[in-house]
Amino acid sequence: MGGIGTTEILVIAVVALVLFGPSKIPEFARQLGRAVNMFKKGLKEGMEDDENDPHAPKAARKNDDHVSH
Q1: Does the model's pTM come out above 0.70?
Q2: At what angle do helices 6-20 and 24-52 cross, to 10 degrees?
Q3: Residue 24: CA atoms inside 13 Å, Cβ hemisphere, count?
Q4: H or E element, residue 48
């Protein structure tokens, strides 16, 4: 149980091909790739903002390795 196997991926690909046609599939793939890249870029920028924010919790800042007691 769990996970997507080869058969499931093949069925999804065939259904997508029938529904959208062969000309739309590459366009959808490009849009999905752009969306993933934008998401990764946003995460990276958010992490950089947290590292530079003096009000962020210490766990969020990578450069603050020492703990003062």
Answers
A1: no
A2: 120
A3: 8
A4: helix 24-52
